[in-house]
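Hey, quick one: can you model this chain's 3D structure?
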Amino acid sequence: MTPPGWLAVCVTLLPYLYLTLVLVYGGLFYLARKKVFLGLLVALIVSAGVFWRNVLLPKSIQPASGIEAIRVMVWNVQRLGEFSQRTQVSQIDCVAQMITQVRPDLLALLEITSHQLFALQKRLNIPQNHCLWTDYYGTGQQKFGGLATCVANAAAEWNIYRKRQLHLPPNWKYLFIEVQPPENISASPLNFLALHVAPPLVSKNEVWQIVKKLLRGKVEGFSLLRETLRTYEQQVELQGMQAVEALLHIRNFRDPTVIAGDFNSTRDAALHGELRQTLIDTWSVAGMGFGATRYWGDVLPLRIDYIYTTKDFAVQQTQTPSASCSDHLPVVSSVFLYSTTP
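Sure thing. Here's the predicted structure for all 342 residues.
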């Protein structure tokens, strides 16, 4: 069941709503010294600890001797600054430098054209057949934005067995590759998927327009607010459908699987609760803090980019390296297979 638009917004902003209430009740208790405010304050802090205990107390598991971790990286590269004032060459250099620094084995890139991917592969010396690209609608138009999966560590002798585009409703695409890692990583093949869930279709300019109209007491502000919430509700429903469709594909896989992408939703959204029933959110296990990957309106930090794995994996470390090449930060996880440990 899809939540109403106002509730979906509250879920997206849940940590900040909690923080606001903590400040309010903390202030009221300080001023009034009433036990009811202290009780509410304690209840909020305890429930916040229950909801977000994993990100406050991350767990890191070290692989056994002789077992190498798999480094997975996902990054929405924002069309390499195509619509900004930055040059394509400088953006490619910036992204290439970060990828070189991280040295991922498996790489998912989002919001990238075929031509941009080719230039980046050339810059990083990644063979052409080590990447799979599609535009978001599967038209084959190389100038359109899309997503890519790559085996970025060519020196480690990873082999790609299969490559395939997969379908999401209503006419969206995502990518699947089956790879064979070196023997010191895994004796069995791995599945790697790149996914970009539908965006919310609510811009910061629309939100500011609503706020301005409401502050001026204009009636059309309420109409615009209802329309915007309705649009957001429809997109939340579509996001849930796309996540469930991807999860159905993963459940049919026999081999260990990693899925990485921009889910355009925060961890408290219903779709992530569904995913966490079957998969491991690598940041929730081994990341520190809330792991913001994008600042909405250049102000509000949100975690909307994720790496999930099947429960065949253990997570050694997850980070969001600082980078100025995009409006998103990359997510990098080091994982390894339980089955490879002695």
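One thing worth noting: Residues 70-201+232-340 form a domain with the Deoxyribonuclease I; Chain A fold (CATH 3.60.10.10).
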